[in-house]
Design goal:
By secondary structure, the protein is α/β, with parallel strands linked by helices. The protein has 9 helices and 14 strands. Helices cover 44% and strands 10% of the residues. The strands form 3 sheets. A 5-stranded parallel beta sheet has the order 1-4-7-10-13. The chain has a 5-stranded parallel beta sheet with strand order 3-6-9-12-14. The protein has a 4-stranded parallel beta sheet with strand order 2-5-8-11, with no helix packed on it.
Length: 310
């Protein structure tokens, strides 16, 4: 029996070797030349500890002061981030012909440029926590928001990834935001520009596209899409403004879809649930869906007859 199983496995191995030889994208074999998702996710989680120093701990370290703890964390983050950035910089056209030494120097400079933005990220996330507390009567304290709100997790990840995106780091920002997507059901492209005091309530099913611009004091609910009007142009649309602009003090209720790069939602607009918007909305407007009809089908003829008789 064991010999028969081994023969079957050897036959499958030979078939796969032949299949790998077809030179397709999925056939590339470059050992140790791709970014490691688990390392990048670990960097993300350690950055979260640095950003919230009193809320999360790392059992791998036993530091005796917050200063020592942050120093150890940053050393680990820096080492792994430089290593992963050096791998992905090969995907950038401006680095495809760079030497290993050039890549190494560029990776170090990029990593430290990113790490210098941590105070800015903390400044913005503080406003997001305040927006969540002010906007949600179900929030009893800010600790609850930091520890449990999926929207805040997705926003923090997007803010971290966005700073790497601005530094033209390939792949890593998407790995980070897709990790948050898998954990929360909230899909925010790292290219999205987000102002202060951003609040996502509930959050499941939210999709926010790459070129979306979001102002300050914006609140959105579950199931909202800020997307492209059409992607049929494929790669020809790369670099164009495909997603909407949401101005300050806008509230977008659940299930609404706002599409198109020329679509601007003006200041103080309220967009009602399930609205489908493909054109700009002027400042201060309230948009709602009109004429929805509820139809009841009880499935009992005698009940329907009694209702008619009455």
């Amino acid at each position: 029996m064991i010999t028969r199983i081994q023969a079957k496995i050897e036959g499958l191995v030979e078939k796969l070797m032949d299949d790998y030889a077809k030179c397709r994208v999925i056939d590339k074999i470059k050992m140790f030349e791709y970014p490691k998702k688990d390392v990048i996710i670990d960097v993300l989680e350690k950055l979260r500890i640095v950003i919230y120093p009193g809320y999360y701990t790392n059992s791998s370290y036993r530091a005796y002061s917050i200063k020592n703890n942050v120093a150890v964390l940053l050393e680990d983050i820096t080492h792994n981030l430089i290593e992963q950035i050096a791998i992905v910089l090969r995907y950038s056209p401006k680095h495809q012909d760079s030497t290993d030494q050039g890549i190494s120097i560029a990776a170090q400079e990029t990593a430290f440029s990113f790490l210098d933005q941590i105070p800015k990220i903390r400044e913005y996330i503080e406003t997001d926590i305040q927006a969540a507390y002010d906007g949600d009567p179900a929030a009893y304290n800010k600790d609850e928001i930091i520890c449990t709100y999926p929207g805040l997790y997705a926003i923090l990840t997007a803010r971290i990834a966005h700073e790497l995106f601005l530094l033209d780091v390939p792949l890593i920002p998407r790995i980070m935001t897709e990790h948050a997507h898998s954990k929360t059901g909230i899909d925010i492209h790292p290219g999205t520009t987000i102002g202060k005091y951003f609040f996502i309530d509930h959050g499941t099913g939210i999709v926010i596209g790459e070129t979306t611009e979001i102002g300050e004091n914006v609140k959105i609910y579950q199931g909202v899409t800020l997307g492209a009007l059409s992607t049929r142009g494929g790669q020809n649309l790369k670099g164009t403004k495909r997603h909407p602009t949401i101005c300050d003090n806008v509230t977008i209720y659940s299930g609404a879809s706002i599409l198109g790069g020329k679509t601007i939602i003006g200041k103080d607009v309220v967009v009602g649930g399930n609205a489908f918007i493909t054109e700009s909305i002027p400042q201060g407007a309230k948009v709602s869906v009109k004429g929805q009809e509820l139809v009841y089908n009880y499935g009992f003829k005698d009940l329907a007859r009694r209702k008619d008789e009455s």
